[in-house]
Amino acid sequence: MRMQTQPTASHFINGKYVEDTAGTPIEVIYPATGEVIATVHAATPAIIEQALEAAKTAQAGWAAMSGTERGRILRRAADIMRDRNHDLSILETFDTGKPYQETSVVDATSGADALEYFGGMAATLTGEHIQLGEDWVYTRREALGVCVGIGAWNYPTQIACWKGAPALACGNSVIFKPSETTPLCALKVAEILVEAGLPAGLYNVVQGLGEVGAALVTDPRVDKVSLTGSVPTGRKVYAAAAEGMKHVTMELGGKSPMIVFEDADIENAVSGAILGNFYSSGQVCSNGTRVFVHKDIKEAFLTRLSERLADAKIGDPMDPETSFGPMVSKQQMDIALGYIEKGRAEGARIVYGGEAIEGDGFYMQPCVFADVTDDMTIAREEIFGPVMAVLDFEDEADVMARANDTEFGLAAGVFTRDLTRAHRVVAGFEAGTCFINSYNDAPVEAPFGGVKASGVGRENSKAAIEHYSQVKSVYVRMGDVEAPF
Ligand code: NAD
């Protein structure tokens, strides 16, 4: 029997599901078949108001609890998520079309990692003591208040947790707006948090398009905005948040380089290029979509890559054997196919795939272009689809300059057996997250985020605490106060 995909109601506010059918209907489409599997309604002003009131009201009591108490609830939620991994993974596959082979090991599990990690860290959050002769200063690490999270559609459960877990650990309340394309998973995160003991009003989910996000960002009750999305949306949201002098985290797009030197282990480099271009059908922000391959090994690399791509199992994402699923939407597939057309027109050579696949659902083949030059559109713009651009190089200094010649700076990778070169190259990368002989790992223990147009702030790790809390300095005078008159 098929899983129930229609949620109890569209929104989750103040500890329970709420509906307002006056909001614009949003159809949820299963990307593998094109079928409508649920309908939710965009938040009306009344729903947005309810969420803001609930979040504002609940926050002070939560911040007043001890970190140990807050953390215990988050860790309990992590355990529930792991226990329900199978069902949550199926729902994530319905929401996004990503193969169960991926969702069962990446999505709810990485969400649970964040809840567990920040749950454990909650009790360790402290200020410091600064002695100044007899006098002293102490700092209090305090919550920001109400945090708004706005998500992209590629990792809906993970994004809901990566924003929610550190925010809650620090004593904030959260209003999360999922992407309109994938509204289902965050509701489950909210349900689980409440089941784990989270008091009502602290993690709310409201649905809607960009305008709902924009209404939240501009509300004076909101203290922080964390967006995962594209650079153009990031510019708008950052500007709106700046107007209200709010804290921001911006996790935006990229066009990341991966450099494969002539001494690289070719099999590992091909694996890295596959992970960094075709996982989640290429819909990953940190993907290394500009693959610079040294000219001496280029043909060997392309041959092995094509052989490995022929082993991809494209098909029903619920089949555990399937390793390459559909695109999230027809629109996203058309965008990727449009870039493939541009690549051909601008003179790049297709080495593999690049065609839409006939039938139901939004399927296309993975695509590899060779002979790509730096000025081609497919080498400059984020595609957010399974389109790899292979560029040639000969000289390290030259390839470094080319790798950094982009407005983006999310990630970058290098494959080489030369230890000193590997570290020299990553030191030179203008990117927030780098990989040596690997690609796209994102453990919760490590900071994740971009430089340049790819973002501001860091998610995960201890670094996220700085973005969900603030310090208050308290000066304590032990003697008399001296005044000039
Ligand atoms: P998008 O920018 O179209 O939308 C992101 C979210 O912002 C959605 O929830 C959308 O409704 C909302 N939004 C749109 N306009 C808004 C506005 N004016 N005010 C407030 N909210 C608004 O992005 P997308 O198509 O959903 O996702 C793909 C993009 O996300 C890619 O560029 C990708 O690189 C990026 N991404 C980045 C990361 C990261 O961690 N750096 C992770 C995943 C995806």
From TrEMBL:
CDD domains, A to Z: ALDH_F9_TMBADH
Binding residue positions for K(+) 2: K452, G455
One of the GO BP terms on file: glycine betaine biosynthetic process from choline
Pathway: Amine and polyamine biosynthesis; betaine biosynthesis via choline pathway; betaine from betaine aldehyde: step 1/1
Cofactor(s) annotated in UniProt: K(+)
Record: active site: K163, E251, C285, E459
Keywords associated with the record: Metal-binding, NAD, NADP, Oxidation, Oxidoreductase, Potassium
Note on cofactor: Binds 2 potassium ions per subunit.
Coiled coil residues, start to end: none
UniProt keyword Lipoprotein, yes or no: no
InterPro entries: Ald_DH/histidinol_DH, Ald_DH_C, Ald_DH_CS_CYS, Ald_DH_CS_GLU, Ald_DH_N, Aldehyde_DH_dom, BADH
Entry similarity comment: Belongs to the aldehyde dehydrogenase family.
UniProt subunit comment: Dimer of dimers.
Function: Involved in the biosynthesis of the osmoprotectant glycine betaine. Catalyzes the irreversible oxidation of betaine aldehyde to the corresponding acid.
Protein name: Betaine aldehyde dehydrogenase
Organism field: Sulfitobacter donghicola DSW-25 = KCTC 12864 = JCM 14565
Taxonomic lineage from the root: Bacteria, Pseudomonadati, Pseudomonadota, Alphaproteobacteria, Rhodobacterales
Gene giving rise to this polypeptide: betB
